[in-house]
Amino acid sequence: MIWPLLEDTIRKGDKLIQDGDLLIVYESHKQMKAVTVSKGGEFQNRYGLFAHNDWIGKPFGSKVTGKKGGFVHLLAPSPQLWTLVLTHRTQILYIMDISFVLAYLEVRPGCVVMESGTGSGSLTTALARAAAPTGHIYSFDFHEQRAEAARKDFERIGLSNFITVTVRDTQGEGFPEEFANEVDAVFLDLPQPWLVIPSVAKSLRADSPVCSFSPCMEQVQRTCEALTTTEFRDLRTFEVLVRTYETHEEYFGTDIGLDIVNNEIEDATLHTPGSSPPHKRLCPTEMKTTSAEEKTTSNKSEVSGKDNWMKKGPKKGRGRGEQPQGSKCSIVARPEAEAKGHTGYLTFARRAV
Amino acid sequence: MSMTNKSSIQSCAEFGSSVLLDINDGDRMTFARLHSTSTLKIGNTKCTLEALVGQPFGAVFEMQSERNSSKLVRMPNVSDVNGRNEKRQQIETDQDSEDVKDRDNRALVDDNKAQTLSSDDIDRMKRDGASGKEIIDALVANSASFETKTAFSQEKYMKKKQKKYAPRVLLRRPSARSICEAYFVKDPRKIGFCRMDTLALMMSLANVGPNSDILVLESLGGLITAAVTERLGGHGSICSTYYTTKRPPIDMVRLLNLDDATALSVLRAPLEKLVAARQSALRSKDQNGVGVAEREALAQALSTLEEPKNSTIGQNATDAVVNDSPSMAVEALSTETPVTESMDVDKETTNIISPAQNTTDGVVEDSQIKDMEAPSTEMSVKQNMDLDQKTSHSLPAEDREEDACELGDKEANPTAVGEGKASKGPRPGNEATSADIFKWANQGFSSLLVAAPELDAWTVVKQLIPLLSSSSPFVIYSPYQQPLAECMFQLQKNNMAIALQLTEPWCREYQVLPLRSHPHMQMSATGGFTLSGIRITNCV
Ligand SMILES: C[S@@+](CC[C@H](N)C(=O)[O-])C[C@H]1O[C@@H](n2cnc3c(N)ncnc32)[C@H](O)[C@@H]1O
């Protein structure tokens, strides 16, 4: 079905989109949508109408144009993309927490992993991908509709063979007895995870890890108490976040209205292009003059060194207007203004041997 | 629910296993390989690691010295002795600080004047063969001020004395995460200052998972390759490529205890070859279109090439020699093909490969891309032989030295000495066969990970992205932000990728104790940066 990488071990060139495939329609990082391709189907967004028939047979990763002229890209689904497009029925885990959990729980092909609650299945998807094709995820949620909706999602993304969703009040009843000593890792995202710890201890193989995700320190506190009074050791609690950067060209003014030039201080020179460390090549270069004739013709032209920049002048016509007189150009990175300040605490422990 | 899944995770340390030794609750982390001659030195005391063979990972040992000989003795139950459970003991002592039974014979003094036992006394006890525990007990018994101490400081003192007189060793199974964490503390330069959360994020960003073909270009000693290998678990292939004549070491992969299939999934190939083969494959597609029939033909060709996996096989199955005797096989191979310098071969390959004529291009290419030969060496042989006996997997000669260095033993821990190598099973990192290269060239890699801080990110990415199949993700690691920003800018301008994201992970650890929870006082200020994106088709 949909997850190309779980399917055919030998692909023949780029994977082509077929009727019935799930794909991610990518407009921008903030605008993505999961679409199941069907013959005769249509997709509508602000760029107008797209006919699925035009998509079929194209490779994943293709750019397609809508009736109104705008375009989107058609991407093969991955757990990372799925997390960004899935229907939120609960709070979900995002890529940074998910990554850390997978790494710390050492989820790999063949692992049996237990999880509660299923929620929107964001983490479950990543766990399943990591444990496939020989492992399995047993996910428990006491909310019937959510469990059902999650099952449908897993079916849709082609991971249902690796996930069993069971309706169960794990805080009240713990995990099922038949899991005793059979589980390689447990993940908890529950309001009162400490209630489940004794059952987690029974389920885990010796030396196997558990992780509990909780937004509040009070929850962490109680969970740690439960872990330390049960058969756990190696307690560690982390918080992980990401900061993302946007990059662009920026012109920095060099003319501050002074006629007198300070010749005393010479600019420290970078190494000449031949001997320069490669990543310094694009370092800011002062542009003394700009003139229309000097416009670079191609956006694709590669900037390969200081000399090049000096000769050709600054790159222009990139939608940012002319380079102002008396300025120098640099590529800058600035943290995006909005960021998650907190998601939750991740507490890990291993069952004592 | 049936629990038929057999977990593939090794639960006990075996003879020849790679292990991570956590000494005194994380005070020191050390990698070692278990051989009869491996030893561990803590302070001035040295003992063999023999006692660890056959023991479960997670087991705790105490180094006990008696009459000039020391040994590691397994502790009965971990929950009381593990230091990270200090928290637990603290919780209890906090709660029951008035509870006398919690004190009695465990209390100790940290005041010299209150201690009637002199260091001479202790030395004499040692000479007489007293165990660490006996010494600690004596210290307790001879202490005057102990009873006046709070439970908390009693505990702290005990811990201190215990670390000194009866150090604890926790036997851990190495994982990519623990390797990363250990190196980050001990020798971060070696792993390019890549922190474990960054490494973890990279695996997600690059969609690393089973049944994929993953291209890695790294100079972090094998850390990235190790992490990828762990995630693939033998399902799929890893190509750890290199651009230098001498293959940069990926020895960290060998700190993992890989089963044969997984070890064999880790391959190496020079970048030039990969690029040349890919260019050729793409040209062939351009000329012939990407018709279904064409694809089927390719698939057919591929599957014939694929079959020989996991056994030594000649041109046809009857020629197959099961490669139980590696050195013999190598001799046979070496005599058939002249020794060639690897770079020469590469150059030649690049030049020779001309625009493809037809579907047989792959086959032509196959004979042109020849692996170089090397003098026979047991370690360099893999059981996974290709279709063509002329193509050997032997390492270039200069590799043997590089590979001979036991990174875990010699570098991560100068005191744990592993003698010889684990000779059982295949080693990860054999040269890719022409069939492998052909396959990668035709279908493209499904992920790309670059962690080569010494290279200009854009220069590398520009060349490597075309090796990916369309819609495949890539991630570039650097301890520096600027080169990634420039690379991102270029990728954007050249419309080579979408979903570009320059990310800086942040990770903070917490102490969690009743009424005393707070972030650790020390934290790592940076774990590096990642630039990620998804390759798109260029047929615009
Ligand atoms: C925050 S969501 C989990 C989100 C999930 N980790 C994800 O990434 O999509 C918490 C889930 O726990 C479930 N839950 C709460 N209490 C439970 C209980 N006692 N037994 C089982 N599930 C429970 C809720 O129904 C909810 O779906």
From TrEMBL, chain A:
Gene Ontology BP term (one): tRNA methylation
Catalysis performed (reactions): adenosine(58) in tRNA + S-adenosyl-L-methionine = N(1)-methyladenosine(58) in tRNA + S-adenosyl-L-homocysteine + H(+)
Residues binding S-adenosyl-L-methionine: 120-123, 141, 169, 189
Matching Pfam families: GCD14
Enzyme Commission identifier(s): 2.1.1.220
Keyword Transport attributed: no
Keyword Transferase tagged: yes
Location(s) in or outside the cell: Nucleus
Keyword terms, alphabetized: Methyltransferase, Nucleus, S-adenosyl-L-methionine, Transferase, tRNA processing
Stretches for region Disordered: 268-342
InterPro entries: SAM-dependent_MTases_sf, TRM61_C, tRNA_MeTrfase_Gcd14
Enzyme class per UniProt: transferase
Composition bias type Basic and acidic residues, residue spans: 291-310
Residue ranges of every copy of the tRNA (adenine(58)-N(1))-methyltransferase catalytic subunit TRM61 C-terminal domain listed in the record: 70-350
Assigned GO CC terms: nucleus; tRNA (m1A) methyltransferase complex
Gene Ontology molecular function terms on file: tRNA (adenine(58)-N1)-methyltransferase activity
Annotated PROSITE patterns: SAM_TRM61
Entry similarity comment: Belongs to the class I-like SAM-binding methyltransferase superfamily. TRM61 family.
Protein name: tRNA (adenine(58)-N(1))-methyltransferase
TrEMBL record, chain B:
Keywords carried by this UniProt record: Nucleus, tRNA processing
Coiled-coil residue windows: none
Ranges of Polar residues composition bias in the record: 350-361
Keyword Nucleus attributed: yes
GO biological process: tRNA methylation
Pfam families: Gcd10p
Compartment(s) of residence: Nucleus
Claim: Repeat is one of the keywords in the record: no
Family annotation (InterPro entries): TRM6
Span list, region Disordered: 66-105, 335-431
Major subcellular location class: nucleus
GO terms for cellular component: nucleus; tRNA (m1A) methyltransferase complex
Family: Belongs to the TRM6/GCD10 family.
This protein's name: tRNA (adenine(58)-N(1))-methyltransferase non-catalytic subunit TRM6
Species, as recorded: Marchantia polymorpha (Common liverwort)
